[in-house]
Amino acid sequence: MKWLLVISVVCFLFGSWQRAIFALGIATEVAYLALRGMAVGHLPLIGPHDTIVFFSASLALMSLVTSLSGMMRSARWFPVIAGLLSGLFTLFALIFPPLNMPLPQVLDTRWFELHVVLAFFAYGLFMVGGLLCAGFLVCRQRSWLEVQFKAVLTGWSFFSASMIAGGIWGYYAWGTYWLWTPKELWTSILWLYYALVLHVRLKGPAWDRATAWLGIAGVFVMLFTYLGVSMLMKSSHSF
User: Is the pTM of this model over 0.90?
Assistant: First the structure.
């Protein structure tokens, strides 16, 4: 099945300037995830391989949808950079072996799946926001910050819903809605950080540069919350 990921990487790295090829890359990655899900009997959401592929697909999907916005149709650079990042994350996923195992009982609930899916949609949108902020700093196209605000607001809403679903899952799994492990701590930091980004954006044009730099820095906060904590710290969310 990994040949599907190879097709995705080729589409993302070399053809994302064409939306049809970009969409083909997304389709093959989604097909890979669907086949993985059928093989293991659940959504492929555990282990670094599956989750990084899911993150790549989420980033690509959110980027494609964003590129269809009227304010982004002339921004030819955007799908190219988004495709490059999606391709690189897919290549990164190939470093890790897939985990072919049933879900542990503590994870075998729809609340866990909803929690993870919504979180990755949010991560993809936060990355989209960071790309738009970088584009604004280079080209001073203020309409891109308007798209960034919508992307981050949607991502923050997804992330808020993910935290609620995660709390319900935690209650069923451990008898409590919240545990102060490193992952929960950094989840709180990420949620508060993007609440700050949204509030700064609403302060008006004088704060545009601050918003842009905060949006770029937020990508690194997000990546540490997802990958850094999962790989470097011991928590209930470790790989």
Answer: yes
